[in-house]
Structure formats: structure tokens, C-alpha cells
């Protein structure tokens, strides 16, 4: 299998974004020791890099494509996601989860 050059301008943007999303999701799952972490592209609230949403025993994190594509901000996004993992109480339901 050939190696993929992520800096290749011919590589489609969507393929790169999906690869970054999957890598981020897997890194967070390893960190949390749980398959219940999901990362998807969305629109976090204004002035936020991410939007972590606890749903029952899962943590759904919305990120923006622009922040995932920038080397300067992808580390910030990862750090914010890691912080969200520590704030999420695994296995506990809040008043919005049934």
C-alpha cells in the first residue's frame, strides 16, 4: 500500500478531513478507554472550539473542519476534547438523558 502524503494538494479535502476526524476520535477513545467517544463535524457555539454533548453513556463532540485543518488549532481542539473527557462522568445520566 502506498503512503499518503497529507500535504499533497491533489488529495481531496474531504478525505483529509475524514482521516483527521477518525484519528482524533480514536486517540480520544484510547485516552478515555471507551468506545463511547464520537467526533463529528458541526458548528460549536460561538467562541468555542468544540461542543461536547453527553448522550447517555456516550460523549459526542462537534468540531469545525476549519479548526481540524489548521496545524495551529488542531492541537487546541485535541486539548479541549481531552478536557471534555475529564469533565464527562462516564456511566452517569444527567437530567437531559433518559
Q: What is the beta-strand fraction?
A: 15-25%
Termini gap: 46 Å
Strand order of the largest sheet: 1-3-2
The general outline is: globular
Extended strand count:
3
The whole-number mean of residue pLDDT values reads: 85
Specify the structural class: alpha+beta
Helix content: 40-55%
Largest sheet: 3 strands, mixed
Rounded Rg: 15 Å
Number of H/I helices: 3
User: Uncertain segments of ≥5 residues (pLDDT<50)?
Assistant: none
Topology order in helix (H) and strand (E) letters: HEEEHH
SSE layout and pairing:
Layout: H1 13-32, E1 37-41, E2 50-55, E3 58-63, H2 65-69, H3 71-87
Parallel strand pairs: 1-3
Antiparallel strand pairs: 2-3
Helix pairs in contact: 1-3
Task: Kindly describe this structure.
With 98 residues, this protein is of the alpha+beta class. It contains three helices and three strands, in the order αβββαα. It has helices at residues 13-32, 65-69, 71-87, and strands spanning 37-41, 50-55, 58-63. Strands 1-3-2 form a three-stranded mixed sheet.
Amino acid at each position: 500500500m502506498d503512503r499518503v502524503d497529507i500535504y499533497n494538494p491533489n488529495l481531496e479535502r474531504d478525505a483529509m478531513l475524514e482521516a483527521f476526524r477518525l484519528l482524533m476520535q480514536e486517540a480520544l477513545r484510547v485516552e478515555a478507554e471507551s468506545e463511547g467517544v464520537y467526533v463529528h463535524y458541526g458548528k460549536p457555539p460561538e467562541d468555542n472550539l468544540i461542543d461536547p454533548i453527553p448522550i447517555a453513556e456516550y460523549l459526542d463532540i462537534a468540531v469545525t473542519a476549519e479548526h481540524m485543518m489548521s496545524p495551529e488549532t488542531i492541537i487546541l481542539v485535541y486539548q479541549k476534547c481531552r478536557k471534555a473527557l475529564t469533565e464527562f462522568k462516564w456511566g452517569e445520566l444527567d437530567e437531559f438523558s433518559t
